[in-house]
Design a protein that fits this description.
- The chain is of the alpha/beta class.
- Helix content is 28%, strand content 22%.
- The protein contains eight helices and twelve strands.
- The chain has an eight-stranded mixed beta sheet.
- Helix 1 packs across helix 5.
- The longest helix is centred in the last third of the chain and has 15 residues.
């Protein structure tokens, strides 16, 4: 099984960490992939470097398997992060656009209604990322946070994005690029320690997985749990990924509330369950971000799908 690390030369926040990663020992040139994608090999890592936008190359995992006969275990994309605040940040997030309906054109890649299996390393790696950033004096200048599920490209294997934000000044920061490279290196056990965030339901003492519902893009209520306990993290659907049509009355059945919110929850749950075989997927709601009718509808739908709702203490 191999891990694909995907970078693009068009983005300094992608190319910088890729260059820093390639400065680690043991890399050798890999096969020319699809004629235009350069590849490099180190142990089970496969670094793919292309010249398109980071969300423009769909199905890289399936294409790699077809071209090389190597089964892909996970995919990690390196990218820039943008934010209105312009605050420097290092972020991790799952990908997908499960709330978009058929016929919609995803603004940043992906396929309407689709969510990639979330990479199980995300929760443990967020804790590791904060530790490495601290050791490289990036804190408190840089915020370390998860983001909600968003954008493409399409993949079928467990996937995450690791991003540097939020302006060109920070995208080019070599110390930030080094931290991201070390996260991948140490997280995969290529340094002095063991790999971190490898999911195995048979040997993992805590098998509860957080499926976040509601809140803003930086999922603050879910982050309260993730950064404190380093729990397993699945998809994180912010409020904008749960479109619900106001019924205009307080007492109404979930099935009568329009919008693609049910589709989004189901796609996110199914993808999370696929990424964590044998795990117990618990929905965690940002209670205060919902109106009463929204919370009632969501909890009713979750019950109908046999999806349990977890409290913060359930993930400890």
């Amino acid at each position: 099984m191999v891990t694909l690390v995907v970078a693009t030369t068009t983005d300094p926040a992608s190319n910088g960490p890729a260059t820093a990663l390639l400065s680690m020992p043991g890399w050798t040139p890999g096969p020319n992939f699809d004629g235009v994608i350069r590849t490099f090999i180190c142990g089970h890592l496969r670094l793919l470097q292309h010249d398109k936008g980071i969300v423009e190359e769909d199905d890289l995992d399936l294409r790699w398997e077809k071209a090389t006969a190597e089964p892909v275990d996970e995919v990690i994309f390196l990218s820039k992060h943008t934010a209105v605040s312009n605050r420097p940040a290092l972020t991790i997030h799952p990908i997908g656009v499960p709330h978009l309906k058929k016929g919609d054109v995803p603004p940043q890649g992906g396929r309407p209604g689709w969510a990639a299996p979330p990479n199980p390393r995300m929760g443990p790696w967020l804790i590791l990322l904060k530790k490495i950033a601290q050791s490289h004096n990036l804190l408190p200048e840089f915020e370390i946070t998860m983001e909600a599920t968003h954008h493409g490209p399409v993949t079928t294997k467990p996937t995450m994005f690791i991003e540097i934000g939020s302006t060109e000044e920070y995208w080019k920061r070599q110390d930030a690029a080094r931290v991201v490279a070390l996260l991948i290196w140490e997280g995969h056990g290529l340094g002095e320690g063991s790999a971190i965030g490898t999911w195995d339901s048979c040997t993992t003492p805590k098998n509860k997985v957080l499926l976040g519902l509601g809140g803003g893009h930086y999922v603050p209520r879910h982050m309260d749990i993730i950064q404190k306990d380093g729990c397993w993290v699945g998809h994180l659907l912010s409020g904008y990924a749960l479109p619900m049509e106001d019924p205009g009355q307080s007492k109404v059945k979930a099935e009568d509330i329009g919008g693609t919110w049910r589709q989004a929850i189901k796609a996110a749950f199914d993808a999370t369950r696929e990424a964590f075989p044998g795990g117990e997927i618990l929905a965690h709601l940002d209670q205060k971000s919902f109106k009463g009718w929204q919370k009632n509808a969501i909890t009713e739908y979750l019950a109908s799908q046999n999806i349990k709702v977890g409290k913060p203490s359930d993930f400890c």
